[in-house]
Amino acid sequence: MRSLKFQHYIFLLALAIGGILLLPSCQKDDDDAIDPNAIELLSFGPSPALRGGELTFIGRNLDKVSAIILPVNVNVSTFNSKTADRITLTIPEATVDGLVTLITPDGEITSKSRLTISEPITISSISPSEARAGETVTISGTYLNLIKEVIFSNKKSVLSADFISQSQDKIEVNVPLDAQTGPVIISNGEAQPIEVSSATDLIVTLPVISALSPSPVKAGAMLTVTGSDLDLVQEAVFGGNNRVSDFASQSADEIRLMVPATAQDGELKVIVASLQEVSSADPVVLAVPTITDVAPNPAKPGTDITLTGTDLDLVTSIFFGGDVEGSIISQELEKLVATVPLTAVDDLITVNTAANKSVQSGGNLTLILPTISSVGPEQIKSNAVLTITGDNLDLVTDINFAGGTSATPTVISSNEITVVIPPGTQDGSIVLTTTNGSQITSEQSLTILASNVPIITGYPAIAKPGEMITITGEKLNLLTDVIFPENIIATQFGTKTESLLEVVVPEAVKRGIGVITFVTFEGESTTSPPINFQGVDQVQDEALVFFDFNGTGAKDSWWGNVQIVNGDQSLDGSSYGMVNGNYNGWTDLFWRNSSNNFPGSEVGTNVEDFVIKFDINILDPITGGNIKMRLHTADNDFWWAAGPAAPGSDGSALEATNGWVTMTVEISAFKDDYGWGTNSPTDLTEVPNEFGMAFDNGSSYVNFLIDNVRFERKQ
């Protein structure tokens, strides 16, 4: 029972083992016949009971009871609850030991058993009113010999076995280490305990921080905390949630501890066993580096500079103009050496610490720029070599010419660079661009002499190895060599005139974007605009494409693991499909069904007149399993496969293609029985079931691009 009329009263032991003791009263003989309308008192309890506690009566037809007389002559007519079999009431303060009487319409019913009243347990005082964790406090009161447990604030319990002493009017007990300020509760420890709480709080002493020294303090240095009761501290917390529990020394009035490297400015918190926190009035202030000098200044990007100052060993990063981070080579208390980034620009230097603090240099670091001494020859043809001399020219990344052309130096040193004059350059100065984006304009001006190099006006955007392409322009008859990417010299030509050149793309040309170099009789050269060299066939009829991966709707209505991509590996500038993953066993790649946009009616029964083509770029070899194409017609289910596990394969990997190629598959290569059978499609008018591609029959990393899956009529 936890609710009493007065807080300082409690129940004495009022509960029998396992429940309320109800005393028998006025029970009839077993042989008597039971009158269903008779009012009977069978039992009541608890007894002993506590004034202010609840008393329960059990019987029959008790709802007819109008009042109960408690000893001596204490009339109770207001009940907590009343039903036919139970009445509960609160015991008035005037109640004493004696028999109880029920007032009913049929007369009075007096109990055979006596109600006994217990004297209350009280807490009169707790001394001292403030105590440290671990110290002894004395609880004074009455009937304290019945107490089995003392509960301190924060639900910290001390059982009677751990009391220092216990008597009827006094308990001595130690304050738990993790107790908090609050009322003290005493309990008789029963299954339904009687508990009494102290009228006032017991104050549990907390530490006090009076000073922090030194201030500011350096990360990694020793901080001294002075105050009182500091021996209660178990952990200290610096700004940035940097926690320290290993102290160099600790006493009641002083703690010495190391400041963490990543500590930040802010109040210092100390935590005691009860997890309560005490904060310092003054913040911990972290020391910061100072920069007194930077040398050399000006400095050359890419070289080392030295910072001098104080506490430079605290620096964790250094940033230069343009917010570019430099590399710290070495650091000491008063010196730090760092490399100036090539892309840094003129500005202050900023150093940062682990305490999230930043300090800047007193003035800008000026960056050295290249200087030009000479440019020659000043009269020069396109594609000829220009030599530039000067200082710090190894900082140059690009050279811009009049006419909007530019080139990268071919030979670079601190004092000299050389560059090839690009075709289209006009008369004028040159501009050097450095690693940090600075530009230096030459005082000298170039005069561009007329050149007998070809001028390209027409070229194919895509060229397939082995096919003849046409180049149009001017002065094409002056050529001696036509050189493709990877320095592959063309050996097969068609028509060759002043304005037209037909040349066969060598099979060994490197796939991808590249240029053709044209060399003249005089050794001059020029290049074509970029051309996409790919081993692909042009799509002859867009209507016969049934997967194009262009995100255009009908022909992209697929399901599976393929992704639509529009990236720099595009075949023709449009989107393509990408398959990328580690696959083990059957994996759907891309599918449609129900003849959804399938151009089979164009083929019909003329399957021998058509092939299936698709453009593919296999980026990594397929080392296991196979890729399988499926045509599930109305008559049968036909498959074609390629890879180590394909029918007829020797088990070798399906190698990377080194660029886009067109694969051609005869329709007769599609077979029943999952590709292992003997029957092929004879009528593609309708394919009412699945058509598309999957991976199966093994495991492999699969990484390829695919586009333009189509029918094509044989030539």
Overview of the structural elements:
The strands form 18 sheets. Strands 60, 61, 62, 64, 67 and 69 form a six-stranded antiparallel sheet that branches. A five-stranded antiparallel sheet has the order 3-4-6-10-9, with no helix packed on it. The chain has 715 residues and is mainly beta. 0% of the residues lie in helices and 47% in strands. A hairpin with a 5-residue loop joins strand 30 (264-271) and strand 31 (277-284). The chain has seven domains: 15-118, Immunoglobulin-like; 122-204, Immunoglobulin-like (Sandwich), CATH 2.60.40.10; 208-284, Immunoglobulins (Immunoglobulin-like, Sandwich); 290-360, Sandwich (Immunoglobulin-like), CATH 2.60.40.10; 371-449, Immunoglobulins (Immunoglobulin-like); 455-533, Immunoglobulins (Immunoglobulin-like), CATH 2.60.40; 542-713, Sandwich (Jelly Rolls). It is flat and about 140 Å long.
Q: What radius of gyration results from the CA coordinates?
A: 49 Å
Fold-level CATH name of the largest domain: Jelly Rolls
Structural category is mainly beta
Q: How far from one another are the termini?
A: 102 Å
Mean pLDDT: 90
Top CATH class of the largest domain = Mainly Beta
Shape: flat
What share of the residues does DSSP label as strand, in percent?
A: over 45%
Let me know the largest β-sheet: 6 strands, antiparallel
- Give the uncertain stretches in residue-range form: 1-21, 26-31
Number of domains: 7
